[in-house]
Design a protein that fits this description.
There is one protein chain. By secondary structure, the chain is mostly helical. The protein is 77% helix and 0% strand. Helix 1 runs parallel beside helix 4, helix 2 packs across helix 5 and helix 4 crosses helix 5. It starts with a helix and ends with a helix.
Amino acid sequence: MGEALYTIISQVRTVAGPCLTLLYPLYASIEAMESITKHDNEQWLAYWIIYSFLALIEIIIQPALETMSIWYDAKLVFVGWLVLPQFKGAAVLYKKFVREQIKKYNSKHGGRNLFQGRSKFMDFMHHKKEEVQDYYD
């Protein structure tokens, strides 16, 4: 019985992970973009920023995470807190940590924006629509 229960839990985790980390946030982000009010955009932009950062950290410390059997479950609980509307954890984290770090950077550098003096790569990535359209014509 114990082995069958473990198999069922493993299967639920396999489906719950992508649903919680990608499918629901994708759906909610599209809903937020298409809604008349832009109030919920902050939550979903913050989610994708934090989730991207989490994914980068995971890639960097992957060997260490492989030794922690509880990592995947802890990540699911954390991402659940980030995405569930009852908590809006992504917006909370962004306001308390990310925004504060940007403010500190700006004040330390004389009010200069964090993204001033962008590289050529960033300029290339942020072409105006007309420039991109001209490129493809």
